[in-house]
Amino acid sequence: MCLAIPSRVIAIEGSTALVETLGVQREASLDLMGEPVNVGDFVLLHVGFVMGKIDQQDAQESLALYEQMIANMDDDS
Q1: Which pairs count as long-range contacts for 19-25, CB under 8 Å and 24+ apart, including other chains?
Q2: How do residues 26-53 score in pLDDT, each as one tens digit?
Q3: What is the pTM of this model?
Q4: Confidence band (pLDDT; 50, 70, 90) for 75?
């Protein structure tokens, strides 16, 4: 199973985006994108590559679910 994580683009330099996911920033390649990506866009991140765009509402709903899963894992410890 593959997992693509919604992330917000906070900077772009060449074909590399700086994205933020749940407070964590990382660089991601834009080489696989077939459409323009802009600062502020929400994108799907998979193994260091931006795979596609996602609208803000869907991204926020997905991130809320991830946060809930993380909280549940912490409760099980």
Answers
A1: 19/43, 19/45, 19/50, 21/45, 21/63, 22/63, 22/66, 22/67
A2: 999 999 999 999 999 999 999 999 999 9
A3: 0.82
A4: confident
Q: Residue 7: what residue type?
A: S
Q: In sequence order, what are the residues at sequence separation of 6 or more whose Cβ sits closer than 8 angstroms to the Cβ of residue 17?
A: 9, 11, 27, 28, 29, 30, 37, 43, 50
Q: How far apart are CA 21 and CA 2, in angstroms?
A: 17
